[in-house]
Amino acid sequence: MTLRAFRGHINRLAKSGSEIDTNKLSDAATTLNDKWVSQFETAASNIAAGDSNKSAGQVLQAIQSLKSSAKGGDLKDAKRKYVAAVSAIQNWVGASGVEGIRGL
After folding, report:
1. Cα 57 from Cα 42, distance rounded (Å)
2. Maintenance of Photosystem II under High light 2 C-terminal domain: which residues (predicted)?
3. Could you give all domains of the chain from N- to C-terminal order, each with its CATH number?
4. pLDDT tens for each residue of the chain, 104 residues long
């Protein structure tokens, strides 16, 4: 995965966080569409091995869970799930050795 592509995925996640923060859960659910998530999954699997592969799976699970909360309209749960998704990405970055990502 290129850093540019990864930053694009992070920007989408950050956008969903802003939407959740302003109680626009349906917008957040739209931002968390399956297209970029599946693109992230494909790219992450290309560089993931061992612990980073497990971490990549946790990121995808966290994003899907966040999307579900946003679709369900549960603001408090969506905020918790957003924090969990960001934490999962930070863990994956550490496990995979992807460096140079600003803003994490």
Report:
1. 11
2. 10-100
3. 3-96 (1.20.120)
4. 566 777 788 888 999 999 999 999 999 999 998 688 778 777 776 665 555 566 778 888 999 999 999 999 999 999 999 999 999 888 887 777 766 555 54
